[in-house]
Amino acid sequence: MSNKKSDQIKERIGLLENMEADLLAPGPDESDMDLTDHQISEALEVINEVDFTKNASYATIILKKASDANIGKMEKEMLEKFANQGFDEKMEEDVIMDDESYNCIVCQTSEQNVTVTPVGKGPKDWPDFILVDQEWASKDERSRRPLRMGDLVEVISCTPLEFRLNNLSETEMIAKRLKESGRFLCMAKATRVKSIFQLSKREVPGIALDFQMCKKTGKLRYISVIGAGVTCSQKIFKWQMSDDLTMRIKKDPVTLDMVEITRPSDLKIAKGGGYILPANSIHGTIEDRKVHQPQLIISISKLNTKFTYPFNSKMSTEEIKVSEKLLGAAVAAVIDKTLTDLEEAQVEVVPMIEEVKGNIIIMNFEYLINTKNRLVRFAEVWQEDCPISVKLNYPEAKPCASGYVLENERSVYYEGFMFKAKLLLAFQPARKYDAESDFEMIKEGAEIKISPTASINALEMRMESFSYNLLSEIASMDTPKGKVTKILLGLAEKSEYPKLNMKKLRQSHPVLARLQTSQGDTAMLMLDERPRGVFQQAPPGTGKTYTAMSIVAATMKMFPEAHILCMAPLNIAVVKMCLELEEAMKIEGIHEPVLALFSGNGKTRYKEQIESISTHLLAHAVDSPEFTSKLELTDLKKVDRYKKACISHPRLASEGAIAQLLLEQVKRRVIFLTLGLTEQLCKLFPETEILILDEAGQAPFSQFLSVTTFFPKLRKVLVTGDKFQLKVHLISLPEAVRENYGLDTCIESFDSSEGIDKTTLIVNFRSHPQIVKCVEAGAYIPANQMLLPREGGDFSMLLNMKNFFVPVAGSPLILLNQTSPMLAQDTNFSSTNSGQTRTTIQILEALSAIGFKGSIRVICLYAAQATEIGREVADRELPGIQTLSADAMQGHETDLAIVVTTATQRGENTTVDNSREFWADPARVNVALSRGKHALILIGDLRYLMKQEGIWSRFLRKALEFTIVADSTHYCRAMINSEAEYVNGLLHLKGASVRDERFYTGQTNQISQPQTGPTRYTEWQSSSQREWRPKECQRCGQRGHVARECRK
């Protein structure tokens, strides 16, 4: 971030903080960061002034690497000569074409020639684009290669080329040719060239992201590549590749020849790197990305060094450094995709103003989209709370407002789709620009350009930590931090087992006395004084968080000065850690405040859960007299604004700035926050010695390793999670880097590392034994892992309900066969099943009617199904019920879990491999089936699921040892019917079993069977057929509206 940009953001935040009206945050990351320059030399902590090889900081290593690299500079004498000859005062003068040379930059290349464009202001008759043959490079004795983008050419004279304007201006014709062919229209060809100045190149590892073959010839057209620090992914054509690459086309690592363009310093680059232009050029497209001193790829060749991931102790130094740089290149690919998605989601619309209040505007817009794919990608960017920037729609306009998305809606519109959004905008001033007038024009409905925004500062820092080989440099140090980093990278060999007496530890620390054998093993590894990295494999319900926080409490007592940072990718997991530590500290007799930090979005989305740890929040900590008594008046005002924002506008609360203020004045040895927030605020915690990462399955390896570089005193790391549950969401990342480039879960690397100490928890303390045995059979036995039920324990909350019947007496497993059709959504790629929705609502109403007191979670494998059921639950005002997707359920637990699968048989003759279907993902299914404590209700086309090889088949076969598959229609009639009874342990109603005979006899063609039924629990006893009635208000009893719309 430049100083200018930093100043603008500071001004913007100052303005927003002083407004009393409804305001918005500057962005998802900026509001939680110290808004300083993100350059490496200023953004990172400096460790003590000691020898570099023994105790170096992120900043010192990065600066040393950068100064040694001499990245992409011209040869010194060439640069000086060009500066003297090519960029003097003559650039601003009209140049006589025949007598003087004019300086041009190569903006587009091909095999035989290149296109150049003037660098500065030229004479009126000088062409905008000139064709230069590659042979001019061979004539220049200083030229070392063909001309490439960024090279500088002094053109003396040129001859006009023939072309037809077709009643268009030259500018319009250039734009038309660019749109049609991606090439610039050259109006002249160079006939005399004075000199050529070529940028020096350097070789770096990169990644081939994609390639395209010619449909007619079947030959390679281009390969898209990316490297760390590259402005954007670039298409490299066959003539820019070495011969060994064209013979073996794969999405593999490659060697990139890169240059850095420093003159002119400000450019814009096309999507895919097809051309570059001076930033002030009138040509190009709205999708061009403006850049400062960009690094470009001019050619590629085969990578001669072996790439290895995960890392291991047998790798050579060269292999380590190259592999490390490739992990940085993968992060660069994520940055490029993020920026590309944002650029493609920009809209030019006429706003529909709904409300104006001072410097605040509430507005709506509508936007037509042609295809469903485009709609889904567009909506992924334009989510609720997405930060935006707004300006008038003309080229010279600057942003005059910022805001965020309040609501969005998508629908089918004729042959396309309509996307609607409601936005909140606040005035944003700009330096040396009349932004206020522009803002007033927006109030009047002037056409505007709206750009979604996102901070990539953390991603850039992560990329640089790998591209500069920071991790391997730290790992080479003979310090506790160096040893831990070496372990985490996977470069260390097996360590010695701790020489602690666990029996004595249990006697000294009551919190450790409650740990089981394998939990105690983890504690021993974390409590000795040897630098370690520990990975604790922990299936659901085995007490991984319980164990981790017991260790934290014991550490606080054993090491009174130790600073501990507890992280998790999920906000819910952070809350759970706080609650577990709270209990552990009571047992250990510790009375000391801890601190929990959350982003504004986290506070909004998980308000209810976060309020359960209110005494540990920053808003509570800043009320302490110990803190406020040390503050000056200016800081007291900042704190006061922060507390008000936490209540009224959580997204405005500057968590990072106030946390820094607090930690400068008072001591907090234990701090909780999400991994994402840690990456933004990591320089606030330089005293961290012990790092805890919970729910590590969803923590990317590169993100976690990058975060550790900010803690110079680090000596212990505990990573705990389950390798068989949900991992990092990779579908939004470029396909080529989803695996083997450090963007997936860190567990994969830690589990294979020799140097990581490993423990495995195998006893589930959370769920009914039958649920545990089914989950074990489905997810863990195939991997030779055990998951044992707890001995004893009371899991009979549902079974003890006398007026609620289960299909098999004494079994908490309720398997309901429901074969109603699965329907794809019109405006997204999710699906719903209305029949399964109805069955779910009937069960929920029955549980509400009999007064079930436990927690209930409806877990859906499809997000659209969760939305549909959630809407029905809200309409009926059913209390205490949450409807979540399986992805959102990781880290949660519930007394009663209702799993809705949505999926049904699509046809008997299908040949599709369903193992890759969304609903068949083993990790997702494992999460869904393992959340329930006292009971599990499973709704789906169970015979269809059972036919699928994998987790569904194994789980259901084991479940059928304890229960039966019931017909959903018959069971819903019987579950709270006073006439229902058990016959030989099976539930019967009026002499008929609820068992689904069609499931057992193999009749699968049930889609046409009636799937309707009563909506009210009072109708079940007397209902003779299932009839799904229209929605009716549960408050007044009338039809045509629901309770939340009722005026009575």
Account of the protein in words:
The chain is α/β, with parallel strands linked by helices. It folds into six domains: 3-37 and 351-446, no CATH class; 76-197, no CATH class; 205-254 and 266-304, no CATH class; 459-594 and 669-761, P-loop containing nucleotide triphosphate hydrolases (Rossmann fold, 3-Layer(aba) Sandwich), CATH 3.40.50; 602-668, no CATH class; 795-907 and 914-1002 and 1030-1045, P-loop containing nucleotide triphosphate hydrolases (Rossmann fold). Helices cover 33% and strands 21% of the residues. The strands form nine sheets. Strands 14-20-17-18-19-16-15 form a seven-stranded antiparallel β-sheet. Strands 23-24-22-25-26-21-27 form a seven-stranded parallel β-sheet, with helices on both faces. A hairpin with a 6-residue loop joins strand 6 and strand 7. Helix 17 crosses helix 18 and helix 28 packs antiparallel against helix 34 (951-959). The protein starts with a helix and ends in a 47-residue tail after the last helix. InterPro entries: Coronavir_polyprotein_1ab (IPR050534), DNA2/NAM7-like_C (IPR041679), P-loop_NTPase (IPR027417), Znf_CCHC (IPR001878), Znf_CCHC_sf (IPR036875).
